[in-house]
């Protein structure tokens, strides 16, 4: 059984103090569900405070992005060595970075390799726009993203990689793919990993769904065989909702 992983992507929400107050309020409640991996990805300025507040717990901290260089004239960026010892995970290739910051498939690959080289675990996000989805090109588009992201990554690193399928049209819109739709694409992604690395590696790979995930639809997603967790936006900013998402994931997978 693949261990479910529920990651909260806070995006540009919560001040450093608000972030610390939030994790202090929920860490004991989240501790009741060790059957799932729980990850908090706050803004950069809150990473140190959140990491300190969660010290001694099994709740992991993640960053929302990373550059591939260790240093240099890259104003506004953060290097992988700056995150060492501070976070366990890092989100790479989220559609908002692809759309608003010009992150390309090639950059995603370079970021993933840099993260792995520094002991960080990438959550590699892939997903299609509404136009691509309605044109029936989802499988081709997402497949290309997956192939590009894993180019040159050795099988020995796969245990430290998570994939998140996030259809862009479902992020922050209130819309979401159905459980069956998400499972179909995630199953396709798992098939690509099998082609690249073999069935054993593919069956071990954890693949999340993201896109307007809420407590009311979490069971639908987590009941699907290929879906191993969720990369959550808005619902992860609410104490009760995030705890409920973790609980529902554990229950849906029969781990409670």
Concise description?
The protein is an alpha/beta fold and 256 residues long. It is 43% helix and 14% strand.
Q: What features would you describe in this structure?
A:
Helix 1 (16-30) runs parallel beside helix 2 (47-53), helix 8 (179-197) crosses helix 10 and helix 10 runs parallel beside helix 11 (239-252). The chain is α/β, with parallel strands linked by helices. The chain has helices at residues 16-30, 47-53, 80-83, 95-100, 105-117, 130-134, 138-149, 179-197, 199-204, 215-222, 239-252, and strands spanning 5-9, 37-41, 60-63, 89-92, 121-126, 162-165, 206-209, 229-232. It has a domain at 61-234: Aldolase class I (TIM Barrel, Alpha-Beta Barrel), CATH 3.20.20.70. The longest helix has 19 residues, at 179-197. The radius of gyration is 17 Å and the shape is globular. The protein has an 8-stranded parallel beta sheet. It starts with a strand and ends with a helix. The model has no long low-confidence stretch (mean pLDDT 97).
| Ends distance | 14 Å
The residue-averaged pLDDT reads 97
Provide the CATH architecture of the domain at 61-234.
Alpha-Beta Barrel
Helix content: 40-55%
Main pleated sheet: 8 strands, parallel
Low-confidence stretches: none
CATH topology of the domain at 61-234: TIM Barrel
Radius of gyration over C-alpha positions, nearest whole angstrom: 17 Å
**Sequence of secondary-structure elements:** EHEHEHEHHEHHEHHEHEH
What is the tally of beta strands?
A: 8
Q: What shape does the CA trace take?
A: globular
**What's the CATH class of the domain at 61-234, please?**
Alpha Beta
Total helices: the number is 11
Query: What is the name of the CATH superfamily of the domain at 61-234?
Result: Aldolase class I
Quote the beta fraction.
5-15%
Structural class: alpha/beta
């Amino acid at each position: 059984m693949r261990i479910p992983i529920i990651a909260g992507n806070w995006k540009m929400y919560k001040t450093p103090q608000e972030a610390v107050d939030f994790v202090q309020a929920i860490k004991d409640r989240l501790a009741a569900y060790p059957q799932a991996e729980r990850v908090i990805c706050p803004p950069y300025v809150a990473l140190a405070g959140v990491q300190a507040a969660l010290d001694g717990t099994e709740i992991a901290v993640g960053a929302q992005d990373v550059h591939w260089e260790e240093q240099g004239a890259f104003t506004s960026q953060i290097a992988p060595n700056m995150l060492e010892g501070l976070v366990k995970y890092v989100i790479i290739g989220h559609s908002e970075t692809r759309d608003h910051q010009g992150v390309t498939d090639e950059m995603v690959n370079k970021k993933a390799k840099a993260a792995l080289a520094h002991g960080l675990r990438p959550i590699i996000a892939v997903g299609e726009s509404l136009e691509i989805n309605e044109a029936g090109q989802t499988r081709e588009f997402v497949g290309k993203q997956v192939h590009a992201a894993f180019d040159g990554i050795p099988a020995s690193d796969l245990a430290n990689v998570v994939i998140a399928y996030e259809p862009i049209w479902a992020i922050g819109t209130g819309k979401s793919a159905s459980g069956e739709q998400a499972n179909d694409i995630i199953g396709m992604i798992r098939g690509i990993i099998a082609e690249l690395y073999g069935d054993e590696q593919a069956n071990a790979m954890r693949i999340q769904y993201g896109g307007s995930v809420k407590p009311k639809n979490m069971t639908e997603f987590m009941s699907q065989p290929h879906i191993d967790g969720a990369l959550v936006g808005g619902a992860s900013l609410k104490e009760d909702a995030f705890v409920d998402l973790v609980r529902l994931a554990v229950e849906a997978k029969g781990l409670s």
